[in-house]
Amino acid sequence: MVLASVTCSAPVNIAVIKYWGKRDEKLILPLNSSLSGTLHQDDLKTTTTIVASESFTEDALWLNGKKEDINAVRYQNVLNAIRSRATKLTDKKHFVHIASINNFPTAAGLASSASGYCCLVFTLAQLYGVDGDISAIARMGSGSACRSMFGGFVKWEMGQKEDGSDSVAIQVQPEQHWPEMNIIVLVVNDKKKETSSTDGMQKSAATSVMMKERCAVTVPQRMKDIEEAIKNKDFETFGDITMKDSDDFHEVCATTTPPIYYLNDTSRYIINLINRYNKASGSIKCAYTFDAGPNACVYLPKDNVVEVLSLFLKHFPGQDISTYYRGPKENIAAIESYQPPKNLQSLFSPETTFDSLKYILHTRVGPGPIVLNESDSLIDNTTGLPKL
Ligand SMILES: Nc1ncnc2c1ncn2[C@@H]1O[C@H](COP(=O)(O)OP(=O)(O)OP(=O)(O)O)[C@@H](O)[C@H]1O
Ligand SMILES: C[C@@](O)(CCOP(=O)(O)OP(=O)(O)O)CC(=O)O
């Protein structure tokens, strides 16, 4: 018999101050604080349904329709942490069936582990009636997942305590604070990456000479400065810090032994293009950041969207714009007919173009996890299995 069923969705987040390195591998405690923007669930999200039943014979998890090993240590850690704080379902012997889908590529550097673990923990917390902070539980699934617990701009305080109880996510500003903030993701490659973030950061922490200064001096200062910039909606400072932190993070990777390279030629072309564009414009009009993969996330104010998209399409024209550009369709005509000002004309007329982008995703800053309706359930209550 089904005892309870809950379905929720959760967002992806993209860090502007990067988390890289752990002081505790098991609890997932970071060596530095980090800060991110939450991407809108209209465009990227995880949806998870969890059903509890007395007739299930084991806990089980299906990710994108495929059965996963729920005994994997990170899944067990979050399940056990939630169950130890349960206020519901405590008097009935039961198991749970979990079905989850990402509406974007999994394990491709688009932060699926962040939305995935956040959604899992948030949905479990609804099912088991867990109150109070749950970001520290999401953190035990994947560090960056704790920041997806809130909308807007979110920081993950590294904390000091050994048990990790103060290593939690805190909302810096809600999504309504800076609604003009847009994000364009240039999807260079959606294949699974060679070095996972987990492995990469462990190697960097052990070997990169840059780590000490980064954690002790650079990041603490940047955290203060970028929080202030977000508060004041100061895009010039926000963009400057964002690009510097991305550059430094990839420098940390390059100074790791053996070196780790997440960027490819296309990523480096994008970095160069954005730097040239900002310089020619006389101000920072958009800011790139790259996670542990070649895809570019570009933060920019809404007013610059048409110009920046038009610039990207000149250099990376793609085939059919209606599938290549995944964003508000009403922008397409304006992007295609955009005439740049004189000082930018040469940048908009590249000698060569590239077809190395898979697609361009356009989204904005959005809200945190959401409880959905029974009609959104991914599990068939009669069979207890994922719906096809
Ligand atoms: N919807 C989900 N529910 C539960 N777990 C998920 C979900 N989506 C992803 N995961 C977990 O996250 C793993 C992918 O994480 P990984 O760090 O390799 O990729 P990524 O998050 O897409 O990239 P990155 O963290 O570098 O941005 C999956 O193998 C799975 O264990
Ligand atoms: C480069 C990053 O995206 C690294 C994310 O690392 P993960 O959170 O995926 O790592 P684990 O805690 O080992 O699961 C930077 C960031 O999101 O802050």
Automatic annotation (TrEMBL):
GO biological process: cholesterol biosynthetic process; isopentenyl diphosphate biosynthetic process, mevalonate pathway
Domain Diphosphomevalonate decarboxylase-like N-terminal: 10-169
Catalytic activity: (R)-5-diphosphomevalonate + ATP = isopentenyl diphosphate + ADP + phosphate + CO2
One function term, GO molecular function aspect: diphosphomevalonate decarboxylase activity
Enzyme Commission number, as recorded: 4.1.1.33
Keywords on record: ATP-binding, Cholesterol biosynthesis, Cholesterol metabolism, Lipid biosynthesis, Lipid metabolism, Lyase, Nucleotide-binding, Steroid biosynthesis, Steroid metabolism, Sterol biosynthesis, Sterol metabolism
Pathway in which this enzyme or protein is active: Steroid biosynthesis; cholesterol biosynthesis
Top-level division of the source organism's lineage: Eukaryota
Residue span, Mvd1 C-terminal domain: 183-371
Family per record: Belongs to the diphosphomevalonate decarboxylase family.
Function: Catalyzes the ATP dependent decarboxylation of (R)-5-diphosphomevalonate to form isopentenyl diphosphate (IPP). Functions in the mevalonate (MVA) pathway leading to isopentenyl diphosphate (IPP), a key precursor for the biosynthesis of isoprenoids and sterol synthesis.
UniProt protein name: Diphosphomevalonate decarboxylase
Organism: Polysphondylium violaceum
Taxonomic lineage: Eukaryota, Amoebozoa, Evosea, Eumycetozoa, Dictyostelia
